[in-house]
Amino acid sequence: MKNLALIGTGNLGTAIIEGILKDKSLNPSNIYATRNHIEKIGHLAEKGVNTLNNNVLAAKKSDVILLCVKPYKVREVLTELKPVLTPEKLVISVATGISIADMEAVTGKEQVLFRAMPNTAASVEEAITCICGNSENEDNKREVSQIFDHIGKTVFISEELMDAATVIGACGIAYVLRFIRAMIQGGIEIGFDAQTAATLVSQTVKGAAQLLIENGLHPEQEIDKVTTPKGCTIAGLNEMEHQGFSSSLIKGIKASYEKIGK
Ligand SMILES: NC(=O)c1ccc[n+]([C@@H]2O[C@H](COP(=O)([O-])OP(=O)(O)OC[C@H]3O[C@@H](n4cnc5c(N)ncnc54)[C@H](OP(=O)(O)O)[C@@H]3O)[C@@H](O)[C@H]2O)c1
User: Fold this and answer.
1) Ligand 1 atom 15: the closest Cα is on which residue?
2) 3-state SS string over the chain?
3) Does residue 113 contact residue 141 with C-beta atoms inside 8 Å?
4) Closest approach atom of ligand 1 to CA 123
5) Element housing 32 (H / E)
6) What percent of the chain has pLDDT over 70?
7) Of 23, 140, 234, 252, which alpha carbon lies 20 to 30 A from 48's?
8) Residues with CB under 6 A from ligand 1
9) Gap from CA of 230 to ligand 1 centroid (Å)
10) Beta bridge partners of 67
11) From CA 169, how far away is CA 151, in angstroms rounded?
12) Domains assigned to the chain
């Protein structure tokens, strides 16, 4: 493993490092994790990660620099790091809404730059991370995806789709959770206590997702398997559609997308 500087080790940065550390073939001493309050990442230091409050030193020591600070801090941090950036160093940002062009304005176009958009499921290693960059070099792309493979799955997309990826991946977690909440409420109405309903619904949603992931079928093909003619599933599904189920979801996705573009 090359040396990795993780600049801004907060929620997401910590989840990424914890994901990496589960791979026992990797050496924690190859990671340089920074933040201002390094006492808050003492648990990472105990595992052998270098923790420091010096971004420049971390970047100097590293081949890959992962920026996990808030979006409004990216320009400031890149400006601070610029004197130690070399064309061989690979810079990745997870900051929402900060484009490759925004970063190139600080670093110059010769710097290899990537953006990555994971979601909050990173902390349970089930994120989907959408990645784009200014380099088509396969070694660079592999290097970036290997980092995010530790917190879930990765997919390369074009930068124009990064806002759409934010809606489906990051906002998507909230849409699915709202769906789960509604299903729990329905479960309570038909007799379950809240805790049991939550257990049933969470596992049912996980199972449905796993069916698609493992079988690779279209959702409707899996739905066909559980809809008996004149049965209760199709009666419930059709009533949901009469009430605008799919339509409201699609409209919500479009509303989020319109908002993000403003
Ligand atoms: N959370 C997610 O699942 C998620 C998903 C997609 C994208 N993102 C993006 O990920 C980034 C981080 O999000 P987060 O939720 O992890 O935020 P966060 O918990 O606030 O982490 C940001 C960290 O940056 C540190 N920091 C601030 N100024 C710094 C500086 N000058 N040098 C070094 N470190 C500094 C802060 O540490 P101190 O408090 O010690 O200063 C803080 O721990 C954001 O840009 C966000 O858009 C997050």
Assistant:
1) 11
2) CCCEEEECCCHHHHHHHHHHHCCCCCCHHHEEEECCCHHHHHHHHHCCCEEECCHHHHHHHCCEEEECCCHHHHHHHHHHHHHHCCCCCEEEECCCCCCHHHHHHHHCCCCEEEEEECCHHHHHCCEEEEEEECCCCHHHHHHHHHHHHCCEEEEECCHHHHHHHHHHHHHHHHHHHHHHHHHHHHHHHCCCCHHHHHHHHHHHHHHHHHHHHHHCCCHHHHHHHHCCCCCHHHHHHHHHHHCCHHHHHHHHHHHHHHHHCC
3) no
4) 3
5) strand 31-34
6) 100
7) 140
8) 7-13, 34-37, 55, 68-71, 73, 77, 94-96, 117-120, 122, 170
9) 52
10) 7, 93
11) 14
12) 4-157 (3.40.50.720), 165-260 (1.10.3730.10)
Average confidence (pLDDT) over 128-148:
96
3-state secondary structure of 174: helix
Q: 5 CA distance to ligand 1 centroid (A)?
A: 14
More confident residue, 224 or 262: 224
Left (φ > 0), alpha (ψ -120 to 50) or beta: where does 256 sit?
Answer: alpha
